[in-house]
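Folding Task

Wanted — backbone structure
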Amino acid sequence: MSVLVLSKKFNPIDLSFVIDTDLLYLDVKEADEKYFFCKGHKGRLTIYVPCGTRFDAADFQPWFRTVVREALRREAKLIFPERLQMWSVRTGLKYSRLAIKSTSSKWGSYSSLGNVNLSLSLLLLPSQYVDYTMCHELCHSREMNHGKRFWSLLDSCIGGSARQLGREMNKMVRNWYESADPRYLLVSNK
């Protein structure tokens, strides 16, 4: 996958960049300040950049993607714990603790110790995919594999569309890649 990233030019994260899902609205605006800063509240965040910021300057985009990832991490820490707890109560599936990570190969994982790890990149997606991922990981508390019983349990938790939701998530990320959307670089950690 990284070979593809290196050979493709992606659109920059600039003043036109917006994440607009039902869980998070994040945009980028200019401010008459010398420094970069974030302002907002749970589910709504603006990253302010100094007027005249050169989004095309050498090495700016990798650094700015790190800024955006940290903003996503901040929001994930506000949104994910409450939502995962709600799914745990609703499904009766337990976990020990939640960790939010900047992963590029997985949306989430469930450890043998009962820990749920979620990718902060989930916030780039609509809530149905966040919920699917949370339920997927919680189902591993009963089935530590992807066998028939696992998929049956997951379908019962989310209404029978588990495999379809997984395919849709993968298709969405492929579309980001094909359209040179900078969200792809946030997911792939490039």
Strands lie at 18-20, 25-31, 37-41, 44-50, 97-101, 108-110, 115-119. DSSP finds six helices and seven strands in the chain.
